[in-house]
Amino acid sequence: MRELAISNKRVRGLKRRLRALAAWADRFAQHPPAPDGVDDAGYYWRLPVNSAMVEGPRARFVIQRTVLQEVLRASALLQRKLKGEASALIPVCCITWPTLFDCELLLLRGEEYLQPLVTESSTDLGRTMRITERRLSRELGFVSPTDWNEIGLRDELQDEDGVLLRERWVYLPPLSM
């Protein structure tokens, strides 16, 4: 279950929560859970964890890596299911770093919806630049699905409070599905 932590207390029942996350990922192999949202681009599922597990002073690296690995596994299971159905839908795993609570598993209706996620851009509110010198999977030690592309983008967004810096890492299968 997706929960926003409102205190800095440690999260209880981590093993149980990680088992629940693994069960959530397993469901994508047969009957995916109901999406958290639907729009013109497709469907999306948010990370079903307590925010204190992946962000904040109590978040631990080992837990973060395990959570990311399960989300990527869910993406790969969904891709395998879609491959057997000759679907035009594209499964995409979008990881935000260091704000992992914003991670999503996307099921896009076509490549035209994928392009805004993976291209550099510049607007009045900020800019997005490609990260080519490093890989998040190497840094954090998780394994992305075989043959999947790893695309890193650095967002510099400006608002009245200042500049927000974050990284978006997009994992997607080869587009010749």
Structure summary, number of beta strands: 8
Order of helices and strands: HEEHHEEHEEHEE
Low-confidence stretches: none
Decide which structural class fits the backbone. alpha+beta
Quaternary structure? single chain
* Helical percentage: 25-40%
Give the integer mean of the pLDDT values. 86
Count of discrete alpha- or pi-helical segments spanning 4 or more residues: 5
End-to-end gap:
31 Å
Strand content: 25-35%
Largest sheet: 8 strands, antiparallel
- Order of strands across the biggest sheet? 1-2-4-3-8-7-6-5
3D shape: globular
Write the layout of secondary structure elements.
Blueprint: H1 14-26, E1 37-38, E2 42-46, H2 51-54, H3 61-84, E3 90-97, E4 104-108, H4 111-118, E5 121-123, E6 126-131, H5 136-140, E7 149-159, E8 162-172
Antiparallel strand pairs: 1-2, 2-4, 3-4, 3-8, 5-6, 6-7, 7-8
Helix pairs in contact: 1-3
List the main descriptive attributes of the protein structure presented here.
single chain; 177 residues; alpha+beta; eight-stranded antiparallel β-sheet; 5 helices; 8 strands; 31% helix; globular
Kindly describe this structure:
- With 177 residues, this protein is α+β, with helices and mostly antiparallel strands.
- Helices cover 31% and strands 29% of the residues.
- The protein has five helices and eight strands, in the order αββααββαββαββ.
- The chain has an eight-stranded antiparallel β-sheet with strand order 1-2-4-3-8-7-6-5.
- Strand 5 and strand 6 form a beta hairpin.
- The model has no long low-confidence stretch (mean pLDDT 86).
